[in-house]
């Protein structure tokens, strides 16, 4: 699959903006970036339900990341921000590839 220079530039720009948001706010910013996309993929298009479902999905993602971080290496913990980053980065790559087709 050949990418045009414009698409490569946009991919790099999206990666830089995501990295900047993560550096500024912290790794939990991925949840704030992922939740609205997941809510829209679930079929919520109108504003009010979309906001409510985005908040619920974001909360569930954080609870899931925290739970996994506590259970994976049991007496030790993995930070929830680190797990959300590991989930968020591939998810955004998937979204970018899906939208470019």
UniProtKB/TrEMBL annotation:
This is Ferrichrome transport system permease protein fhuB. GO terms for cellular component: plasma membrane. It is found in: Cell membrane. The gene is fhuB_5. Its main location: membrane. Belongs to the binding-protein-dependent transport system permease family. FecCD subfamily. InterPro entries: ABC_BtuC-like, ABC_transptr_permease_BtuC. It comes from Escherichia coli. It comes from the Bacteria. Keywords: Cell membrane, Membrane, Transmembrane, Transmembrane helix, Transport. One of its GO terms (biological process) is siderophore-iron import into cell. It holds the Pfam family FecCD. It is a multi-pass membrane protein. One of its GO terms (molecular function) is transmembrane transporter activity. The chain crosses the membrane at residues 12-35, 47-64, 76-96.
